[in-house]
Design brief:
about 10% helix, 8 strands, mainly beta, eight-stranded antiparallel beta sheet
């Protein structure tokens, strides 16, 4: 996923508001991540965002927690940025500061119910 190919950049505070809304409403989230050679895709619900900005997702297989911070680039997209069949309402992308050529990211997408 290239930064220039998706949505609009938003503030870290706005991204946290969206995450808290997802946690409060318990919507289904599709999570994708690429960090180095590691890839991850799963579905779950945001269960917690703690005071140190650790986001926890509860899945059928267990929990996953990742840390976010104001040093990450936050990008918001909505359903207009995806094919209709994707069933995505909106997404948050967190891009990590990069030293190499690949783009490391975490993407969380709210899915239609």
């Amino acid at each position: 996923m290239k930064r220039s190919s998706v949505g609009q950049q938003i503030s870290f505070d706005d991204a946290c508001l969206i995450l808290n809304g997802w946690s409060d409403s318990r919507v289904l989230i599709f999570c994708q991540s690429r960090v180095g050679r590691t890839r991850l895709s799963l579905r779950g619900r945001v269960s917690e965002i703690d005071s140190r900005f650790n986001v926890s997702l509860v899945t059928e297989l267990g929990d996953i927690t990742f840390g976010i911070g104001s040093d990450l680039e936050c990008v918001y997209t909505d359903s207009r940025d995806f094919p209709r069949e994707s069933k995505i309402v909106c997404s948050l992308f967190f891009f990590f500061p990069q030293a190499g050529s690949e783009e490391d990211f975490i993407a969380l997408s709210e899915l239609e119910m």
